[in-house]
Amino acid sequence: MFPAGLILAQVVMLSVGDRTEGRYVALFDRHFEASTRPLVGANVAWKHLTLTLRYAPTFTVTPVETDNRNLYVFNNAYFAASYAWSHTKLELSQNSGFGAQNFFVLSLTDPRLNTAAPPVTTPGGTTTPGSNPGTGAMTGTPTNPNPSIAQSNANRAIHYGTSTTAAAIRSQVSSTTTLRGELSYLIAGATRPEDAVLYPVVRGPLAIGTAQFQLDRRNTLVSTLSAQYVSSSLGTSAWIANYAQSWVYKLDHQTSTQLGLGIAGTRSPAPNNFIAYSIYPTFTAGIVRTSVVERGKLSSSVIVSSAPAIDLITTAVDPRLSAVAQVGWARDRVSTFVSADATMSLAVKSELGALSVIGAGAGLMYRLSTGVFADGGARLAYQKYEGQVVIPFSQTLYLAVSFLLDERL
User: Fold this and answer.
1) How many other C-beta atoms lie within 10 A of the C-beta of residue 108?
2) Mean pLDDT for the stretch of residues 27-49
3) Which residues face 14 on adjacent strands?
4) pLDDT value at position 153?
């Protein structure tokens, strides 16, 4: 028997999927890893209301080839409800994760696979499984609940939990003007006392407001105002307020560019129990292009940005310069990609929360049948934190099989 609400729904979509991946990793040693991420979900839609529910746990075994194996289980759940009327849409969402996590292992996996939220199309329109979308922050207000790696001796299971509750409203007030506001609250940190020394519990709200004005078919202006506050179980806190103005220009129907400038004010802890107040200029520059090459779709993008970000370990504000480049090509059953990203701290290398990251990836995917894919490739990672190299240049080769089946009732 189905509930009356489901019977009256206009669309009921059930989803089931999985991604199983084998990896050869060259990190501190050379070993094999295996992971699988099953997914179940449902989407129920009425005339104005849509409900989405997804659950996607991740199971990782490392190293596979020895008897001294470790199993990491991390649970991800996502719920969203959206209500649309006239030219306005209101959305409420809850994204949660908890379990055992090894952030060294996580550094060489696809970050998009560590959440149950639906995938977001990257600039250039690619959502290829196994790619590395980069770590560059566009707004200076990070929403990724996973922290940087605190110490090189933290290569072990960390019992960790995250929760992001959000409410957003978007309204097209005229044919040329769109307004959007979002308020979210983040809680993230270790769930065991022995892990809280490395990863304290942080929490706080983030508010973002944007106004988009389409001047003509080629020119669009976007104004963004954001504010974020984070407090830590260690007794420290920080905040960032940021205003940015961006100009999006369409060179042609295949190519668009973006240029943005802004200013950010911050308050954060400093060495010797001081409090630091700072003002930073911010900028964003990027280009996105799609074209047809050899009867396939070629998508490419380059984005460079500079903005302060709050470190989720020390709650210190770290000014960072980020760059992300991606190229993807797809035709019929085959798609391929190459991506690279880098984040460099502009602070003194030994300052609190100073983070520098390099990542890259390349892969090839083949669609075996409807909703079933096989893919393989390579990833690279490097990380320096507060002047110490916590992840030396490390590589992994991977092979994976994934499927996602949607059934409309």
Assistant:
1) 23
2) 91
3) 42, 407
4) 57
Question: 103: part of which helix (H) or strand (E)?
Answer: helix 103-106
> Looking at this protein, which amino acid is placed at residue 70?
N
Phi/psi of residue 282, nearest 5 degrees: -125, 155
CATH number for the domain formed by residue range(s) 4-408? 2.40.160
Residues 6+ apart with CB under 8 A from 408: 11, 12, 13
Show the tokens assigned to 22.
Answer: 């084998």
Report the distance separating Cα 54 and Cα 332, nearest Å: 29
CB 283, CB 264: distance < 8 Å: no
Identity of residue 346: L
Q: Give the three-class secondary structure for 195.
A: helix
Mean pLDDT of the chain: 87
User: What is the C-alpha to C-alpha distance for residues 145 and 122, in angstroms, rounded to an integer?
Assistant: 19
Residues in CB range of 222: below 8 A, 6 or more apart: 210, 211, 212, 213, 245, 246, 247, 248, 260
pLDDT in tens, 238-262: 999 999 999 999 999 999 999 999 9
Domain ranges of the chain: 4-408
* Structural tokens at position 377: 């490739």
Residues with Cβ within 8 Å of 175's Cβ and at least 6 positions away in sequence, in order, are none
Which residues make beta-bridge pairs with 245? 223, 261
Cα-to-chain-centroid distance, residue 302: 17
pLDDT at 213: 97
Backbone angles phi, psi at 106, to 5 degrees: -65, -30
Closest CA to 184 of 163, 166, 198, 157: 166
Say whether pLDDT at 140 is over 50: no
Q: Is 102 helix (H, G, I), strand (E, B) or coil?
A: coil
pLDDT at residue 136 is higher than 60: no
Helix (H, G, I), strand (E, B) or coil at 273: helix
Rounded Cα distance, 122 and 334, in Å: 18
